[in-house]
Write a structure and sequence with these properties.
Rossmann fold; 2 domains; 12% strand
């Protein structure tokens, strides 16, 4: 289904009337020409970018909006921008009296502007500079507060403007990240279906099918995406925007984020805590999809155990503190609040073993995903070079503690204490 039709909403057989608050989406060459019309009812605009994103689309944006832009925040482009309290303060400090925030960039810039604009109760629009993630159309803002990766429910953008000529010139790493984020939906959708089976969680078939369709669409365009074909890169951007709209329709990020995202967040948070390198989000998601596929394959290869593998509270908290350092307190408090460690899911696993096995079998196996990533220019050797085997083992066991969501990581932990699949076999 095309974006324009989705923006009008869908009366769904799941019983929900799905709606989307985005007013305009333009993904085309010279898309900035629509900015004057989009902002016709707004004055005193605050422009937010970093030096790199401003270089990509700042001039076009300012030309289109003439004298409406009265304030600017331009972050340095020489280092990684973190969406933390300091960055929020800088944007918020310039937002007094502004009628709209105009964000130029991709993930972090958008999340900052989304967060500030929501708390200020003013709209924002995003001028996209890279097809790097699916958060453009999402109401969730992924922030790092007090050292923890926290997703805040905010609001959706007033408009998304994406010039395919700008997108096609984005760093190849960011283009690969966007495609990798879409490939990760294999894992996210499987986790959603698994949780419906184990926890009776709501799942919308329309949202599930629409998201799955975008995965196939992007996979079919990988070769053209890698040569920066404008139409193919535009189609990738459309898939990412639709994935975000599906989050809004479902009322949860389930269709787009599962165990593969938890692993990605693990690598990011531990990288920030320890001052070590990590991949861009979408690339970590892509590699982590291989890991979660291996976990599913490993579970399917064995008989279901009769009882859960238990890890004492003191021992697991000791490990969480070792891994997360200053962020450990938030993880421990989150899991104490959700009670995930106290739930006995073994009876449900036994009762629904046949259905669970059918669900896990739907996800492509690790070799299939590795082949896709190789086509995308993401060999697994790079993943192993970035992260030592012990770090991957910690991720498989304790990435689940960053979120309150049930995924195959919890099933793996219930069965064998979260022991990782054989690293050499991935």
């Amino acid at each position: 289904m095309e974006i324009e039709r989705l923006l009008k909403g869908v009366s769904c057989s799941c019983g929900k009337n799905h709606t989307c608050d985005i007013r305009f989406v333009f993904i085309e060459e010279d898309a900035e020409k629509h900015l004057e019309m989009i902002c016709s009812d707004f004055d005193r605009l605050l422009l937010v970018a970093d030096e790199n994103t401003y270089a990509a689309a700042g001039r076009q944006t300012e030309d289109a909006l003439a004298k409406k832009i009265t304030k600017k925040v331009i972050f340095p482009g020489c280092k990684v921008l973190i969406p933390d309290e300091k960055a929020v303060s800088r944007v918020d400090g310039e937002a007094d009296g502004c009628g709209m925030i105009v964000a130029i960039g991709s993930g972090v810039i958008q999340d900052l502007c989304k967060y500030v604009s929501f708390n200020r109760n003013i709209p924002y629009l995003i001028v996209a500079t890279a097809p790097s993630m699916d958060g453009y159309a999402s109401e969730n803002a992924a922030m790092i507060m007090k050292g923890m990766k926290v997703s805040y429910t905010c609001h959706m953008p007033y408009a998304i403007v994406a010039d395919t000529a700008v997108l096609a010139k984005a760093p190849m790493e960011m283009i690969r990240a966007g495609a990798g984020d879409i490939i990760g939906k294999y894992s996210a959708l499987n986790d959603w279906e698994l949780s419906r089976c184990v926890n009776d969680e709501y799942l919308c078939e329309f949202v599930y099918d629409e998201t799955y369709e975008q995965v196939g669409r992007v996979i079919g365009l990988i070769d053209k995406i890698l040569v920066r074909d404008k139409a193919a890169v535009g189609a990738l951007m459309q898939a990412l925007v639709i994935a975000g709209i599906m989050i809004s329709f479902a009322g949860t990020s389930r269709p787009a984020s599962g165990s593969e995202h938890h692993l990605s967040h693990f690598f990011e948070i531990t990288g920030l805590v320890n001052g070590t390198k990590y991949f861009p989000h979408g690339i970590d998601v892509a590699y982590s999809t291989v890991v979660t596929a291996a976990i599913r394959k490993n579970i399917l290869a064995k008989a279901f155990p009769g009882e859960a593998h238990l890890v004492g509270k003191d021992e697991r908290n000791k490990q969480i503190k070792r891994i997360y350092g200053t962020s450990a307190k938030g993880c421990i408090e989150l899991q104490e609040k959700t009670g995930n460690y106290d739930r006995d899911r073994m009876k449900k696993y036994t009762e629904k073993e046949k259905e669970i096995r059918e669900i896990l079998s739907k996800c492509p196996d690790p070799e299939e995903i590795k082949t896709l990533l190789s086509r995308l220019g993401l060999p697994m050797e790079d993943f192993y070079s970035m992260y030592p085997a012990g770090h991957i083992r910690d991720a498989v066991r304790y990435a689940k503690d960053l979120k309150d969501r049930y995924t195959v990581l919890w099933m793996n932990f219930d069965f064998n204490g979260g022991q990782e699949p054989e690293i050499d076999s991935l």
